Amino acid sequence: MLDAHWFTEIVPGAESAFSLKIKNKLHAEQSEFQYLEIYETEGFGNLMVIDGCTMVSTRDNFFYHEMMSHTALFTHPAPKKVWIIGGGDCGTLREVLKHDSVEQAIQIDIDERVTRLAEIYFPELCESNNDPRAELKFIDGIKWVKDAAPNSVDIIIVDSTDPVGPAEGLFSEQFYRDCYNCLTPNGMVIQQSESALFHLPLIGEMRDAMSHAGLSHLQTLFFPQCLYPSGWWSATIASKAELAEFRKVDAAAKTFATVYYNADIHQAALAQPEFFKQAMAKRA
Amino acid sequence: MLDAHWFTEIVPGAESAFSLKIKNKLHAEQSEFQYLEIYETEGFGNLMVIDGCTMVSTRDNFFYHEMMSHTALFTHPAPKKVWIIGGGDCGTLREVLKHDSVEQAIQIDIDERVTRLAEIYFPELCESNNDPRAELKFIDGIKWVKDAAPNSVDIIIVDSTDPVGPAEGLFSEQFYRDCYNCLTPNGMVIQQSESALFHLPLIGEMRDAMSHAGLSHLQTLFFPQCLYPSGWWSATIASKAELAEFRKVDAAAKTFATVYYNADIHQAALAQPEFFKQAMAKRA
Q: Chain B: nearest CA to A123, how far in angstroms?
């Protein structure tokens, strides 16, 4: 049995749990929006927990941040303007700014405290925050997208918490309609879409909502993410325009370093497990 | 904190843990070789635990069993004779026998009790045990391979526990030499090779040992496996002959059902993460 030196997150439904051994509790606070904790772990570096859910660790965040950014940016033909809704730890922003084509990247997280804590406890994720192309806003991302002018953005990355609490509205058809309205003609959303092992119906509902909102060209990508329920995560790209193959030549010749992502891994992430293919076909 | 109603496996080094909520403890015994436990879980069906390590659950075993079998069987040009070293739960045997080309599949697990418990608690994994092509032996797999005649087998699947205790010898250069000696000219080993996130040096050492033993054509494949440390597992194919592309046409036209595996997933599993590629290149 685990003693009090472990942080544990239980996954309801699956009735599984993932735990990390804690060296020190570094910080805890109730922000205006959520309960934030920072731990120093024995094996995963620092750990940020939001409302009891593990969000990001030093050791394994590269999977998620790379797969939420480079997949979309190498799929869009020429991404210049990128918004990140959520993403307060700034890790996705850092990856986005590795692309020279990007002229402007705006991170819109409702909770400034997440970023302030990331600056202290995950400084490596924040190393591009002062890039002249970066802008950090601490406002409601749902309202930001709703109020945006048409044709404002090429890629919207929805890097949110689970679809309960503050992030719930980010999984709604209305939100995707608002995205549709402010995206450029080749524009696309990429959104974290939970675990295909644990949350298959949710992925189906999300894809349906995206599709009904006009973002009807879909790709769900799969990748490991130790820290998240089942250790196997997904992201879904929803595009206004038909999705051509991703820019393989550019991805293979990328001029920046990654830990997990490369052109082969991008292609691999697109492979649909047999049960996933069958479940999605049944909905169609 | 998790109470006594949870079964937990701690991963040393990573200092992470995975837990499943238990409905009932169905069985426990000390066999001649190891301590075996069977639980009924809340979310994963039945669970077999060997020496404190989660081995197989009803809910998610399909990833591992399919990826340990179909990848090798669709890589070999015409597999007729297959041995499974370990694999006492019979799930790999079931998958192997889905291939019509297979004339003989011998499962060699040192511990008969694992199979007897699988017959009771995982009957679906044992449904091909009476196939006339199947043979179950309860003897030492290391000795079996050592004593085998040259040219006896096309594929050896090493479906073992971790490289400590009874399975340690299955990760040694001497074992791979013995495999080399009894494999046919196109023969190959496929062996579970732990987590690239947690056990990267071990994968490197294993690949080196395989290579030194003459099984010098290597492929490491990656796939999700919720139940195992980090939720992300690997298998390594080590072949006597140069590895051509796998039989994609046959895999795409497979006549049997799978839950995870298909031709795209096979291709995807071959993609090497950037950090893995770099770490293996450094050893070369």
A: 21
